[in-house]
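Entry for the shared binder. Reason: the reviewer on the internal report wants the predicted structure included alongside the sequence.
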Amino acid sequence: MNSTDNASRHLSIHIDRTVDEVYASASDPANLPAWALGLGGSIKRIDGQWVAESSPMGRVVVTFVPRKELGVIDHHVTLPSGQTVYNPVRVISDGKGSEVVFTLRRQPQMSDAEFERDADMVTGDLNRLRELMESA
C-alpha cells in the first residue's frame, strides 16, 4: 500500500472535434463498448439500467449523471462485489477541439501496480475515443 491511498490522477486527451460532438458520443452509454474496453464488448439497457455483462470485472452496472451543460459525464460503476466506483469525467473546450479529462481515483487498498494498470487502461480508452471521434 502507498501513502497516497486516496490519490487521484487526472488523465486527459485532446480530440479534434467540438465539445458538443464529443459530449454527445461519450455520454451515450450505448457507445461505451466502442471505446471503453474496461466495460467489456457490449452494454444493454436492462430494467432501466445500463449493464455490461462481459466486462473483465464481471457483470457491472453503469449509471451516468443526467445530461448536463458544461460537459459533465460523470458516472458510477457498480462492481459484482456491490462496490460502487465514482468516475468524474469532463469534456471541455480546447481551442477548436475538446479535451476529455478523466479523474482516476485510487480505490481503498489498491496497490501502486493496480493503480498504474488502471491508469494505463483509462489512457487506452481515451485514445480509442479520440480515434473514433476523429475518424468519424
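Summary line for the report: Strands lie at 8-15, 44-46, 49-55, 58-64, 75-78, 84-87, 89-94, 97-105.
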